[in-house]
């Protein structure tokens, strides 16, 4: 399975001679294990060791002296990398791509890498599949303004329609995502065997892994494009369309008094689900009505928030991704 996972993503990189790849993540995580170690090694590249530098200058010197050509890391690291590069006026010469996992790269960071002429390769995955389910191609990403994720060779993908059957392509279709491939695990393991058996039955059916996420598919086989929409409980569904919270985040951040913003699904006392918005604001002048007026001018229908909550901080996971589930549990009325 490890060999399959590493070789399945190798073609997206187009490795050249004398490549050197670095990740600051522990190789205990399947994303860094596959992209930061095994794939480079199988391609004849060198895996650089995280130097644990004492300061930013030492880290940049390490990158320069060792001629690092690829990075595989999380969005939080790339914010740090670009920040120290900007301060040092260092343009990451020789870097051929950066691979992003365990979260989506913000548009501002993607734009910064575009200005540096470094393609950012977004990946999407799950631990149950040794991480990678789809990713961008390094050559195609040079011209792409937005992530264009492709399926892995040897894998099968489908989304389900309202009846629970496969939505047939090649046209655009969206729904709950299921994936089949050699890297998909066979079952969950847990000290509570009944819990493990239940989890296995609900997510692994035959050779298919039902991810619990929604996605939009377009095309088929070699032309298949995959756009992950998010974990289903964090989306709002209207008809057959799923709305994600990220556009709300982006619209709210345009307001000058907004420090941080995160949309989430709030369930009211009648069990109706709709987007709400948590905001960390600067000062006390920004009002709920001003936020809603601004966001509703940009986003219409079910994709728009219905309420705003001002908070002291936005909950996040250890990779600095917004914990939308925690916000939902905090503010939902049921």
Which labels suit this protein?
334 residues; alpha/beta; Rossmann fold; GMP Synthetase, Chain A, domain 3; 3 domains; twelve-stranded mixed β-sheet; 9 helices; 17 strands
Short description:
This protein has helices spanning 2-10, 30-42, 56-65, 75-88, 107-115, 193-203, 246-253, 288-296, 324-331; strands at residues 20-22, 46-47, 70-73, 97-100, 120-126, 131-135, 149-151, 156-159, 173-180, 204-205, 208-218, 225-231, 236-238, 241-243, 258-267, 273-281, 307-310.
Provide an overview of this structure.
The chain is α/β, with parallel strands linked by helices and 334 residues long. It folds into three domains: 2-147, 3-Layer(aba) Sandwich (Rossmann fold); 156-232, Luciferase, Domain 3 (Luciferase, domain 3), CATH 2.30.38; 235-331, 2-Layer Sandwich (GMP Synthetase, Chain A, domain 3), CATH 3.30.300.30. It contains nine helices and 17 strands. Strands 1, 2, 3, 4, 5, 6, 7, 8, 9, 10, 11 and 12 form a twelve-stranded mixed β-sheet that branches. Helix 2 links the parallel strand 1 and strand 2. Helix 1 (2-10) crosses helix 2.
């Amino acid at each position: 399975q490890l060999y399959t996972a590493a070789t399945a993503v190798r073609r997206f990189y187009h490795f050249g001679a004398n490549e050197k790849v670095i990740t600051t993540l522990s190789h205990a995580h399947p994303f860094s294990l596959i992209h930061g170690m095994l794939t480079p090694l199988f391609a004849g590249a060198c895996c650089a060791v995280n130097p644990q530098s004492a300061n930013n200058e030492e880290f940049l010197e390490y990158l320069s002296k060792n001629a690092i050509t690829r990075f595989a890391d999380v969005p939080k690291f790339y914010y740090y990398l670009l920040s120290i590069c900007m301060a040092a006026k260092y343009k990451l010469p020789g870097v051929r791509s950066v691979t992003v996992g365990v979260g989506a790269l913000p548009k501002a960071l993607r734009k910064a890498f575009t200005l540096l002429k470094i393609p950012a390769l977004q990946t999407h995955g799950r631990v149950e599949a040794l991480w990678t389910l789809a990713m961008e191609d390094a050559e195609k990403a040079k011209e792409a303004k937005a992530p264009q994720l492709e399926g892995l060779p040897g894998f099968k993908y489908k989304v389900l329609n309202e009846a629970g059957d496969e939505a047939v392509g090649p046209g655009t279709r969206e729904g709950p995502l299921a994936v089949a491939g050699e890297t998909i695990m066979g079952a969950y393991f847990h000290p509570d065997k009944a819990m493990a058996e239940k989890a296995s039955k609900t997510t692994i059916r035959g050779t298919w892994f039902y991810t619990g996420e929604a996605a939009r598919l377009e095309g088929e086989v070699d032309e298949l494009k995959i756009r992950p929409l998010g974990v289903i409980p964090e989306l709002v569904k209207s008809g057959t369309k799923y709305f994600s919270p990220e556009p709300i985040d982006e619209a709210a951040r345009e307001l000058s008094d907004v420090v941080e913003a995160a949309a989430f699904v709030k369930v009211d006392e009648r069990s109706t689900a709709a987007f709400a918005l948590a905001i960390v604001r600067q000062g006390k002048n920004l009002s709920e009505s001003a936020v809603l007026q601004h966001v509703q001018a940009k986003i219409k229908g079910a994709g728009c928030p219905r309420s705003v909550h001002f908070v002291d901080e936005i909950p996040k996971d250890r990779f600095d991704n917004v914990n939308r589930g925690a916000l939902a549990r905090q503010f939902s009325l049921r």
